[in-house]
Amino acid sequence: MKTIIFSLFLFSGLCLAAQKNSFIVMVTGDTLHGTYVLSSGKIELSDAGHIIKQVNPDSVRSLFSGNELFLIWHGMLRTYNDNIETVQNTTYHDEVYDTSMLVKQIYTTEKMNLYFAVDKNRIQYYFVKRPADPQPEQMVVSYAISRPYNGDDRPGYNYSMINQQRIYVDQLKQLMNYCNKISDEIWGLMDYRIYSFKKIIKLYNKKCK
């Protein structure tokens, strides 16, 4: 199994390198202030350009930069690719990495929060967390090539298309206790996008007990 620590990329290339007015909250409850950078799988604390402490991400509960909240996520990250040329390559397959990531909280509600991260390959990932959950759960998506046959063997009359495997829909249904107040039509329109996750979570807060 491969092990990888992703550098931090969040929204518009936002990076926590050299971010002042930041602090981290340790699992123990201690708070450390200073300038932080995620480097080589460690969070480095520096003062006036000098590294004064290295912190293991697993020992960090959360990180604040300005008014923004980040959590440390550690788990088996399921990657994906939505490029049709890549996916149709017979040697391609989605990979799974044991990794630690900083994920940004982008939507906060009473029952469920939404988080977002981008890895070093600029692939976007979404995570959700209920109040009682120990850490956010990755919302999994995958892509596959389908080659529908229309009965015509002439060149160009059969085609390939890429289909989104919406694993995250079943994940959310389970996390939301299969709330029947959210219709199948709404689930059917859900996509792997921020606005779509926000819509479902908003309905969950409003309609489901």
Task: Please provide a written account of the structure.
The protein is built from four helices and twelve strands; from the N terminus they run ββββββαββββββααα. The chain is α+β, with helices and mostly antiparallel strands. The strands form two sheets. The chain has a ten-stranded antiparallel sheet. Strands 11-12 form a two-stranded antiparallel sheet. A hairpin with a 7-residue loop joins strand 9 and strand 10. It is flat, with a radius of gyration of 20 Å. The protein starts with 18 loop residues before the first strand and ends with a helix.
Strand content: 35-45%
- What's the helix count? 4
Largest sheet: 10 strands, antiparallel
First-residue to last-residue Cα separation: 40 Å
H/E topology pattern:
EEEEEEHEEEEEEHHH
Shape: flat
Which class best fits the helix and strand makeup? alpha+beta
| Low-confidence residue ranges | 1-19
Please tell me the overall pLDDT.
Answer: 82
Rg over CA atoms, rounded to whole Å, is 20 Å
Instruction: Assign a percent range to the helix content.
Output: 10-25%
Tell me the total number of β-strands: 12
Instruction: Strand order, main sheet: write it out.
Output: 4-3-2-1-5-6-7-8-9-10
Features:
12 strands; ten-stranded antiparallel β-sheet; 209 residues; 40% strand; disordered N terminus; alpha+beta; two-stranded antiparallel sheet
Entry summary:
With 209 residues, the chain is α+β, with helices and mostly antiparallel strands. It has 4 helices and 12 strands.
Outline the secondary-structure elements.
Layout lengths: L18 E8 L4 E9 L2 E6 L2 E6 L4 E6 L2 E11 L5 H4 L8 E12 L5 E6 L5 E6 L7 E3 L2 E5 L14 E5 L1 H9 L8 H6 L4 H14 L2
Antiparallel strand pairs: 1-2, 1-5, 2-3, 3-4, 5-6, 6-7, 7-8, 8-9, 9-10, 11-12
